[in-house]
Input
Amino acid sequence: AQSLRALAQRHGLYIGTAVDMDALADPADPRYRELAGSEFSTVTAENAMKWESLEPTRGTYNWAPADQLVDFARQHGQRVRGHVLVWHNQLPAWLTEGVTDGSIDKAELRRILRDHITAVVRHFKGRIWQWDVVNEAVSDPWDTPSTLHYKGFWAENLGPGYIADAFRWARAADPKALLFYNDYNIEAFGSGNPADDKTQFVYEMARDLRARGVPIDGVGSQGHLGTQYGNYDTLQVAAALRRFAGLGLATAFTEVDVRSQLTAGVQAGDSAEINPRLQASAANFSTLLRACLAERHCLSFTLWGFTDRHSWVPDWFENPPEGLATAYDENYRPKRAYQEMKADL
Ligand code: XIL
Output
């Protein structure tokens, strides 16, 4: 049988997965490494390139796990999505505590950010295809205030100007890497739900950055969906991608998974084959993939993990418990989502 990557290649599409470095290195779990290498043409670090992983102690960088991923990619003929340079989560404690206790002032914080971006992008120079430069900078309708705004640690401490700065610093450090803004709830446009407003906000942000000559090359749509929210329409997903493309930007799906609540007749280990209620999961993977295939500027389609054996969902969505979010079950049997993606390719 053909791999996802072989099928995607015929469309010029890169198909990817986030990689958990512990699982990749586990000799007792060889199937993880095999599938990560054989089914995908691009990889991204699930955690290894985040600030708290790279610089747990101020001034001391721990490059080894991230370097191992980049080496793995080279051995397997894969491109790398770098994730992530600027985000409000998974920051090292020395940084957040330094700001809280006042030992790091705003001018120093801006220098620290510049130096971090420069050090990381330079370290991987020439080996990263797309960088997620800024991640999740925009609020959601359920945040306070509900009016969409720039949220989180960086906007609060530096103001929204950090976004343009970050792209400029990244470009200077590796002029050939494609620089992305990455976010969730921007997967569709025209559905009439609140995600339309966030998509529009990000669109206006990107338009403004482009108009000012800020070096942004693409917008990444994460694609963390849940079956409890129903299914988007392929045309609405394509419409969101096309709006960004209209600004001269590339697009990508960067973190696709489709979780389900493990309540009311859905339990760990179920798949769409044995529990028809999970067919919505497969359908959502297919919706996003078909929209990406329909838009030439959609460069890559990355899954946020490929097996229920190693997925962030059960750890993060506990009340009610959620899971079953990936394309392979816990024993590496391909699920219906996998078959549907193959059929789409
Ligand atoms: C998640 C990882 O999957 C987890 O292992 C980690 O504990 C928390 O972060 N949006 C992002 C990703 O941009 O970096 C997040 O990854 C999932 C949500």
About this structure: The pocket of XIL is lined by residues 46-47, 135, 222, 255, 312 (CB under 6 Å).
